[in-house]
Amino acid sequence: MKQAKDTTGTVLAVASAVLVVMALVLVFLWAPTELTMKEVQRIFYFHVAVDWVGFLAFFVTLVASVMYLRTNDRKWDIVGLSSVELGALFLTMGAMTGSLWARPVWNTWWTWDARLTTVAITWLVYLAYLMLRGAMDDPQRRARFSAVYGIVSFVTVPLTFASVFFLRTIHPALLAASSAAQGKMQFETGLGSAKMGMTLTFCVIAFTVVYITLLRQRIRLEHTADRVARLQQELVA
Amino acid sequence: MSDLMGFKNAIFLVVAYGVFWAGTFIYVLTMSQRQRNLEKDLEALESLVKKDNER
Amino acid sequence: MTYLRQVAAIIAKDIAAELRTREMLSSMGVFSILVIIVFNFALELTERNIIETATPGALWVTIIFAGMLGLNRSLAVELDKGCLDGLLLTPVDRSAIFFGKALGNALFMLIVEVIVLPLFVVFFNVPLIQPWVILVVVLGTLGFAGVGTLLSSMAVNTRAREVMLPILLFPVAMPELIAAVKATSGAMMGLPLSEWQQWLNLLIVFDVILVAVSFMVFEYVVEE
User: Fold this and answer.
1) Distance between CA A53 and CA A87 in Å, rounded?
2) ipTM
3) Is the CB of B42 less than 8 angstroms away from the CB of A89?
4) B neighbour chains, 3+ CB pairs within 8 Å
């Protein structure tokens, strides 16, 4: 029995592709050139969009975790797992591109400011979540523990941001190298700044759609794997 | 002078967008591959179960 | 049995068990001494101002590594001896088990810290035996033990037992650690409270949040 035609999936995929192409056009052809950083600044648009999705994914996992604990339904476990995988992918891309932007602009590959530290910690949480799952065999327990960790570790995101934020504001001397870097961009005209804002918003929307598309695909993949496992057990029985 | 800096930095820009593209592409590819494999398994298993039931 | 007595009973059980073998405390203690010695050589703490900036960090690294040893041990023993199952069969509130275990773990960490703090004073000549510093250390320990108890309850049930706890715990405890280090630094150097009070406040807030969340989800970890 072949899988029924997946119209929603195709629609989402097409929408994603279209939005990404449009975003690229906006980023490279419409958005203004930044005054000091010049073209390299264009990394910023996709970089921020990808980071945003990376954190959105965590929120989705949080909700899925809570729902799993309340319902014990495997489908929520799948949502949580899929979202963490995607979140890890997006944050990895975000951190890498952030480095690639930081190097030419601030002459350093990394800096422990509030945002980047939070990205690093969140990435470690994703890794921990996936390793936790990898080290457990019993599906129910695995789902439950993952959900618990998804909830407990979520609080570290705002807390880490807050603590590093306070750290940096009290010690401005430490900031010397990266103060220029704190996203201070300048454009020739007011219209330029507005265009930047709109381009950024569009990129964020585009990547959110990409995330939803990929998330749905990943969830379906896991459901299929479940069916295969069930059939295998049926045969053995 | 600043043009030269612009050119040197363009490398970073290119590589950065390469990362986006490569990352998404690889993930989508791995997922489609797993999906195809699983669907093959599914078909095989389902026909096996049918044969089993008919017996 | 009232709630408090349940909690106290669990703590008493852990203390009694530990007093019999003293395994956990001795390994935590020895480990801490070793870490301190390593720090002594690794950090080249020769200049005065370097000592003052680096020591709070070194202190907390020592505490959390020793703490993790204790957390691992404490929950592993529960699992191996089937004590946890036994506890669950009694009509004890699940959350009482959590607080009992967490406070027990905190207590063991505090006992080790009684050794660690004077050692730091002796080796690095830093004024750690002050009321504010002790308060900060106690607060940090409570928070760490709280969330650590929850996470080690999970870690101990995985294939990669001992390795899993640091992986799970470090990212989650990070903000609390940052606040604790900064607060210790402020307290140690005798700065006026207003200068480092926000770190103390942050530490308290983090502790409350982490422990509250841990306590709320603990039952999902131990239920079968």
Assistant:
1) 7
2) 0.90
3) no
4) A
